[in-house]
User: What shape does this take?
Amino acid sequence: MNIGIVGYPTFGGSGVVATELGKALAKKGHNIHFITYNQPARLEEITPHIFYHEVNPADYPLFDYLPYEAALSSKIVDVARFERLEVLHVHYAIPHASAAFMAKEILKTHGINLPFITTLHGTDITLVGRDPSYEPVITFAINQSDVVTSVSESLKQDTYTHFKINREIKVIPNFVCTDLYREAREKLSPEIVNQYAPNFEKIIMHISNFRKVKRVDDVVRVFDKVRKKIPSKLLLVGDGPERQKIENLCRELGTCNDIFFIGKIKSTEYALALADLFLLPSASESFGLSALEAMASGVPVISTNTGGLPELNIHGKTGFLANVGDVDAMANYAVQILENESTLQQFRKAAMEQSTNFDIRKILPLYEDLYRSLIP
Ligand code: GMT
Assistant: This one.
């Protein structure tokens, strides 16, 4: 099949899902055309069947804001016509679903039918999409999509709650290539562990885009309580708007010597291979891809019980769930897992097993079936 994929070229979240999906489809021989404004973070090498089309909105002194959505629609039209796209898959509703609708309407005037699938990822529905400045467009574009999928049951329900949706939403959960994470752990050298935990301290990890919704300050507060009971180090991976505030908090709490700010990295599997425990105290999380990646590395997860997290993290088995902001509960759970090596190993095993339910080999055919159902 000739498939167009539109998404954000970001390090995490929907961008990674879109890129990894395209890469896996290309391996099966489908021609994948990524359409976005920057090289997708996980797309660096020349790979057969993968093509990247950059969207470059032309600037003009009149524009305070570049009309990206119009440029994206134009690019989709161009790629669809000349690369003979059979189906388009857009990730994250804003502004991709409405741009896809516009492109589809234009393509009709060329006698081309381009069905499009919209995958809802989270903040496009739960946070920013609900804002009155976007809501009417999002509602319309979701209702006009040929197929709509969401990455969790919880996100599907949120969509019905917050938008007037008159059609079916199919849940296709996010996925991970479990082999990649298992192999990275197998390759882990004691020398690198020693760099971060020279005295065999436990390694606690958090990975995110450091936005407010991730509550990274809770990560630091949980860690501050845990380190008083268990010798441990905290590795913070990622970067974003809250970073300075978090660095200041570490200084206030006097925890800086035990915390490493790693910054953004592309291959999280090598970071996760180091971890004993993963913290995800988000205020809202439609799925929690980083938690799944942690589990695929055999790392138990302490997360909040918000959004789609309970569909992934099994309380008392793969980790623990706590209420948003309940730093004490999260710290107690962390100690419960880390204080006893055999408990930790039990949680590690269960986490890894749970991740296999979301292996790319299980999820990819669901998308392929969807595409086929739309191509005459
Ligand atoms: O976390 C973000 O704000 C980024 C956002 C994205 O689209 O990049 O993440 C959302 O999509 C991910 C992939 O489907 C989900 O794993 C995240 O849970 C979701 N984030 C939120 O709901 C906050």
